[in-house]
Specification:
alpha+beta; elongated; binds iron/sulfur cluster
């Protein structure tokens, strides 16, 4: 068989497998039903860095609360961030909200149907634009997620490690993308990667493309894809200032809109420093000039690019509030969009105080 025939044969097998074994997912339309671009977009944004199992309940909740994109556009950012709690990477939630507003105001609530227009929208990168083009509009496009990268790597036994090999994998994937049924094909590869060609112990025995898979022929499926060693994450340090009033209320504040955890509510903290600073230096950033008591232990939270070690200082304050201060009873913390790192701080305090 020449290369063209091999590709054709593969595509037929992949689509045939998809027709019989596709995953049933809440955001996926039934066969023969035109997909809803809002559902496709929402699920793709949620699925970035998050598992399908986690996303299911969030997706359903968002649709119950904001059934259409215009509803989401009209929601308050706070409500969206609050509903997003637990999915992490809050910049995605802020961009989701902004994107809904742009589509409502500039596109009459309809997603544009070109990759370039999609790419110009907040929070939509090359992968998401391509996934929307293929899945929502059934237009020929080649989205590359982690599952697809793994399948393509093994199919061609690409020995170059990820992420260096990404560009080459993309070229190989483009060659394989069919003109018709682009959405089904992309989702089929995602499903094969998620359910058969899994990171460990791929189930080659039931794979529809075993015959054409070089990694399987050479017995390399367990070894591929190779990965470059990740650099060691730096550790940043900070102090969290837990300030209470005699009423039992605790001081919270909103983080700046831009930057990590932008717009989220936090227990005030000092800057997150890579360079070790003394307590004295960090206390200068405390919200009030009061006496502080150190709580034993540290809280560690890991972000994508660094670890954050937090110490907790306790203080009481009865004076005037400053602009932006939010005083909340601990049992009402759930009313605020507190990120996971702050929930860990609360859990640590509860554990220490018994
Ligand atoms: S044959 Fe095995 S290694 Fe190759 S694509 Fe299928 S599951 Fe992956």
């Amino acid at each position: 068989m020449d290369e063209k025939q091999i590709i054709k044969d593969r595509v037929i097998k992949i689509l045939g497998w998809y027709d019989a074994h596709r995953r049933i997912l809440p955001w996926r339309s039934e066969p023969g039903v035109v997909p809803n671009p809002y559902h496709v977009w929402l699920s793709e944004i949620m699925l970035q860095q998050t598992t399908v199992a986690t996303v299911k309940s969030y997706f359903e909740y968002f649709l119950t609360r904001w059934p259409k994109i215009e509803n989401l556009a009209k929601a308050s950012l706070d409500d969206v961030l609050h509903a997003w709690q637990g999915l992490g990477y809050y910049a995605r939630a802020r961009n989701l909200h902004k994107c809904a507003q742009v589509i409502s105001s500039d596109y009459d609530c309809r997603f544009p149907e070109t990759e370039s227009a999609l790419l110009a929208l907040p929070g939509i990168g090359p992968y998401t634009a391509s996934a929307i083009m293929a899945i929502a509009f059934n237009k020929k496009s080649t989205p590359m997620d982690g599952n697809i990268e793994r399948v393509i790597t093994r199919l061609h036994a690409v020995m170059e490690p990820l992420p260096k090999s990404k560009k080459y994998l993309y070229q190989l994937a483009i060659k394989m993308t069919p003109d018709l049924r682009a959405g089904d094909y992309a989702q089929a590869l995602m499903d094969i990667g998620a359910t058969i060609c899994t990171p460990r112990s791929p189930n080659c025995g039931i794979c529809p493309i075993t015959r054409n898979c070089v990694a399987n022929l050479k017995g390399l499926e367990e070894e591929l894809p190779k990965r470059e060693k990740k650099p060691v994450k730096p550790v940043r340090r900070a102090i969290v200032f837990w300030v209470t009033r005699s009423s039992g209320k605790v001081l919270l504040r909103r983080r700046p809109e831009k930057g990590l955890l932008g717009g989220m509510i936090e227990i005030p903290s000092s800057s997150w420093e890579v360079k070790k600073k003394s307590h004295k230096e960090l206390i200068e950033q405390a919200p009030f000039d009061i006496n502080w008591k150190i709580i034993p232990g540290r809280v560690r939270h890991t972000f994508t690019h660094f670890h954050l070690d937090l110490e907790i200082f306790l203080g009481t304050y009865e004076g005037k509030s400053l602009k932006g201060d939010i005083w909340s009873m601990p049992h009402q913390f759930s009313d605020h969009a507190l990120p996971t790192v702050m929930k860990k701080v609360i859990a640590h305090l509860q554990a220490v105080s018994g």
